[in-house]
Amino acid sequence: MLADDVVQRLRSADPNQNAVCRAFAEHVARAQRFVLTTEALGMTQTLAYGRPTTLISAMGSIRSPYPLTWFEHAQDDVDEARRRYDGDDPRPLSAHESCIRRTGILVQTLGSERAYRAMPVVQFADGRMRLMLHCGTADFGDDPLPPGPCVTGYSELRQQDWYRETGHTEIGRRMARYLADDAEREAHMAFLGRFDYAVMPMTAEVLRARGLPPDIVTGLPSAGEDVNFALWAVREVAKNLVILNLRNGVEIRDVSGDERAARLRRRLGRPPLLDHKVLTLRMPRHVVRLGEERGGDGDAEMQAHWVRGHLKVRRTGIYWWSHHFRGDPSLGMADKTYVMRP
Hints:
By secondary structure, this protein is an alpha/beta fold. It has helices at residues 2-11, 19-30, 38-47, 52-59, 75-85, 95-98, 149-152, 156-166, 169-179, 182-192, 201-209, 223-244, 259-267, 291-294, and strands spanning 32-36, 68-74, 100-109, 115-124, 129-131, 134-139, 195-199, 250-255, 276-281, 287-289, 303-307, 310-314, 317-321, 324-326, 328-333. It has 2 domains: 2-282, no CATH class; 283-342, no CATH class.
């Protein structure tokens, strides 16, 4: 698990030169740790295709239940999730993504359960580890926020160019269609407006102790990449928190270290492995919903077609509807631009 590597490696860092790493490791050791499965990652992939109005509505129901939460996933599982759930946008990992083995995000609540900061760390395929100097921040409280960098720097044309260049053709078409609607566009910008970035608190504390202003790190060559990764991480955490707050289908399995292995590690002078939880979804893969079976006429008048998994926000909370088959096959099959793979 990446959390074990982070704690063991960063805790052993030189206390004078790498106080930031040691402080980060202590936070990870105290956090509630989750490993995301392919199914959970598939849902976060699918959320990107949803309506902005639904997503921003769901954000009003999310809560961060722990003061410190750790999410991690393997890049191979991201690739598998894309293969299963992104049938309309089949694409290989980018050159940057192919260098990454695992990614972890430390989440710290900020005064309320609806505000948090996300601090990412990356482990590369060659074993190197990189802790970002910036973190992403989010606030889904009731009060609107001033426009942040995700809003002020947003360009619909540039975003569509990125979709084309990276092979996200279907999501590009969907977003173009959504943003043509005033309500969807307003919701999209409201969602982006909830995110910002700042210098990592551990980094800021060390710099202040040495008489340096925290914003000095913004002048480093890696600052731009750090900020982009921090903003990506804080948006990913929003989707992960949606999973944690779902009222249906979530399965959380505790994984404790093996006592025999722990004794062996103690004899070898190694620290014990950390306990963690595996976060996954347990949903039916294919559900057939025909109009006559549901007792309604709406679906009976539709051609048969696949419906992508999506959120439903109710007064009682957030629910997940798995992708399913809808409509009347006798009227023909509507050939969507995406496919669902088992």
